[in-house]
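G., the chain you wanted modeled:
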Amino acid sequence: MPEVNSIVCLGFPYALHQEDKINDVDDFLIAGYVSGEDYHIVLPALMQALVNDISSWLGKSIRYRMFTDNAPILERELAQKAGLGWIGKNSCLLSTTIGSSFLLSEIFIDLDLEPDLPFEKDLCGSCHRCLDACPTKCIEENRTIDSNKCISYHTIENKGEIPEEIANVMGNWLFGCDICQMVCPWNHKTMTGNNENAWSVSQVYELVKMKSTEFAERYKNSALFRTKHTGLLRNSLISLARVNNPSTEKVISELISKTDDSILIHTANRTLRKINKNSA
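Predicted structure as tokens:
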């Protein structure tokens, strides 16, 4: 797009879980950004409305393209140059007003707009709570993430078996992980809780019993659909190792009898062994 003269960078906030939800025995957690309809559907519609308004204000058509986590664009770096914030020690873009719990999107546009000043300060200071809190120690000192250790990567993008060393510290995360954001002081003033994404054990049981067709119909417009039914089942089986009761063993045993997926069977048997070990 040689006609591009400006890039409009946008942030769309979402709610995080309260910090005390980390490893809460009664809750199974889903990353905050998953709330409601998939942002790949919501944000393009909002950006399109903005583009339409700009075109209407100017009284002419404009050339543009819109992106939100769907192309190889350095979104955080562009947002920093646009003045939205700085890249924190947890590798997230941090804003002084809304912390790091917001999604990024961009409009590449042919208008010659006056640029904002880059955000040059690093306001993490000497704080290292995110590094200390990460259960897998996936956050590097250079503000990058070792994805092979990241709970978010394994619960969403990893389509195979989750390594035991990761599964052992996943805690109560079903999809994604927000720990490095939940402990960040810059997020505390905006954290209001996210009850929609805190599931009960009965909801997890329901998921394990659910047919794939029902899962697809219920979550086809949710970001949860990215990991597919088998991925979320695998994550649920790992997290259920914390729930030591006869109902859990029964639900897992029923799943084993119904599936021929080798990853689910292995994960389920690993969970049963852990439950039996804890009982002993």
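The mean pLDDT is 94.

Shout if anything looks off.
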